[in-house]
Queue: 3 jobs
Job 1
Amino acid sequence: MRELLGELKEDGETAAGGGSARSAFGDGNGVGSADAEGSSYSQDSTQQFSSHHDVAMDLINSVTGVDEEGRSRQRILSFAAKRYVNAIERNPDDPDAYYNWALVLQESADNVDPNSSSSKDALLEEACKKYAEATRLCPTLYDAYYNWAIAIADRAKMRGRTKEAEELWKQAILNYEKAVQLNWNSPQALNNWGLGLQELSAIVPARDKQTIIKTAISKFRAAIQLQFDFHRAIYNLGTVLYGLAEDTMRSGKPDVSPNELYSQSAIYVAAAHALKPNYSVYRSALRLVRSMLPLPYLKVGYLTAPPANNAIAPHKDWERSQFILNHEGLQQADASDQPPSQSPGHLDRGRKPVRINIADIVSVSACADLTLPSGAGLCIETIHGPTFLVADSWEALDGWLDAIRLVYTIFARGKSDVLAGIITG
């Protein structure tokens, strides 16, 4: 959306500088070049289109902006809207023209005076109609589904926790789902999908809430797996886990310990803050959840490990013991490493503990291998070779995968000192 304004401004300046209006808003903006003879509109269709176009243009022209910058931007948007209307009149089957017109309407809605919610909603409603037409003409137009979902979500936010908002959130979620189906490699769409589910969970009956929340968690996690330093998705996963912990605490019938959920939440908030330490929202959230971490570590839990230097040892020789993760690495806990309020591990003191330095990690992945003991397999590939461990469950494995990847990502971004300050400061 924000890139649109720059493109429009550049094109508008070109037109003002002496170039023809058509060349200024030609192929570079995706407007079709078919001429008027290509139109298949009947007279009734033309009249209907003209009516819709008048409504949309009136809405755009009614936006004045709240300051000089806003007014300048709106003049550019109005100019662009006229070009897209002309393009559709020449070729009513041009999905790009409808898509770009929808973007102009959506951008105009952002330019509305904050005290005029009705005008903003009307602009977004018109934008949704244009996105619907664009996707009807081109069902594989990923960007249209994505921005359409954003427009619907903005309309839902205006309606609070009402039945109408619930229906709008469901529509937005369906469009995010369609966008991801068309482009699976879109962490932002997955993140927004998760946010939509999170908002929906606050409206639906309590019996439906947990299922929706778990789906939201899976979307945030999928976004992070596509982009390990996607701090917004990392933070959002932390907030949804915190909310789940609160709900679990209130219900009195936890499937998972509320303390475990709080601790998981704190890991993601801490990671988001480490990646973006200047974000005040992350800093405030960290103050709330830092005490929920197993300080002076980021994560403490159980994994089953083979004897040192014998990854293919018989299953009976593998041992379930406590592991600790901090900014430096992952290692089996011994008596001197026990964090506060943690029960001691069962590590045989005659065995050499597993130690993996973050700087040595090449990749971290789940693995299902019959040579491993039962459970959820974890493979940590390092410059010294692979280390195989087994988590108690696949759900527990997700937590370990995320935590190790996040610590490595923070290290790779040169922010290990920030994470160290969080857990040891």
Note: Residues 53-263 form a domain with the Serine Threonine Protein Phosphatase 5, Tetratricopeptide repeat fold (CATH 1.25.40.10).
Job 2
Amino acid sequence: MANSEGTTKYEAVVVGAGPAGICAVGNLLEQNKEPILWVDDVMSGGRLNKYYREVPSNTRVKRFISYAEGVKAFRDVAKETPKPNAYQHLKDLDQEATCHIAEAADLCIMLTKGLDESKGVHKHLGKVSEASWSDSGNWSIKINSPGQDPSTITSKLLILCTGSSPTTGPLPVSRLQEIGLDSALNPPLLSKMIPKDQSITIAVIGASHSAILVLRNLYYLASSTHPSLAIKWFTRHPLRYAEERGDWIYRDNTGLKGDVAVWAQENLEEDRLPSSDVSKYLQKISTTKATEQEDYREYLKDCTHVVQAIGFHANEIPVLDRGGKKFEMKYNNETGGFEDSDGKDIKGLYAAGIAFPERVVDPEGNVEYAVGLAKFMKFLKRVVPSWTLT
């Protein structure tokens, strides 16, 4: 794997070991692109496993199975891993039901462990800090590792699966304690963060799946162990639900699903909230983009804490350049590739995952961006063969 200059060379470098990174490795192996260098700082299922194990999934179990069986390398890992294992556990569940994110995270960890050097995958704990495209048709990639000097390797392909983190925005009221979305989605941690013996009012901003989960978590605390807890919910629009429409799902990527959707319908809709037990603890503030700053000034002044569930932003990616000039680039959500400022494809650079999702159009012409394990698999099975032609 070393070239004439002594630099280690790979067919592909995959950055990130969350569900999309795992899927990218599997699909590269499907195209016989190895050796692969796989770089991540912990190599343990990404943010899915680190932060969201306590979150109920809005995905049917059979969709996780389709991810687990999507490529030969994954199927081999499932066969080789001693039982009981995470894949077998999912197989034993009701395939039409949902499960907890922890069960999908355990699958990701199992696959990560099984994708090893025997399959042409070399794992490196560290962070890719920069990469330069050379006229020789390779990326020169610098990797920083804890307790080691930086190393440089070359690769034909650089695949970014670097993930996203919750977004927050400025608010016109000071002295609010911010509760991060990651923490608010973890009921045991959230319970410890909120004092039980003080009057606490927590504002929740947003109406996404995550926002409704946070509202439910807070309601459960307020109605049990934290009786002095009150909730103010700020939302710009009515609740939106995913809808089964034959062989496709309307609002598949943006609508409420599963148990969370049922809870929202029973407790948060305009005709249900006044008579719901939730109304004892929750005040709904309907706002708009034009009026929300004014509404925040009026209603946040009585709050002690805030949770912003308003979306995610892409995590930092390596510094990328060609001939010493930093790339100005645009992601193509249909091919998984990038274009430079002149509209030309950047060779050997691709991405996938929550920060780089596939653009999809439903039968009614609505545009969404596909996020989820099975959706990553479907996307990468389609595009990786074209990535590996060069």
Note: The mean pLDDT is 95.
Job 3
Amino acid sequence: MPGSHSHRQLGIVSVALITYFNVSGGPWGSEPLLAACGPLVGILAVGIFPWVWCLPLALTFAELFTAFPTDGSFCKWVGVAFGRPMGFQVGFWSWTSGVIDNAIYPCLIVDTLLALTTLEDKDDAAHDNNGVAWNIFALRAVFALLFMLPTLSSIKVVGQTLLVLGVLIFLPFTVLVAYAVPLIKPANWVVIRKDRDWGRLLSSLYWN
């Protein structure tokens, strides 16, 4: 029907970015993947893992979202399967973990900016006798508030904000990749470590 999708606020790119920032937040983590068992095993693992784990999981979520076309996602699914109290528990603890996890990123941003400054004594600038300096704490709070503001407007603004953040995050890595391409040595890709750490490899795959 014409106009049946006119209520949609997000496009494919915005949904993809929301998903990306929700589960990743940046192209980090490749170092332990390659270091755990060597580049060859790491590259093969990155190529195989999405098909044996991520794709079935995505199809499961797609099936559940189709079966329950309502707000609430996994809270609704768990509530239907195990009762509303368990659905509430899932939602509450998911929210709690999100609050704790999201509190990390303003700290990382401020600490990174502090590390990039030309201050002679960064430790003294970041800490006082009682712990973290108040100016650093305030700066972290400012970043947290800035990231919160789009969510107070609309989901469309959130998508647009994440588009800008996505460009800002990927641009430096694009420059690094362009710089590194002439330095590539394909012979290193087939190296396998003798002391392979499978646990580290699997944990890095799941984390990424």
Note: The beta strands are 127-128, 131-132.
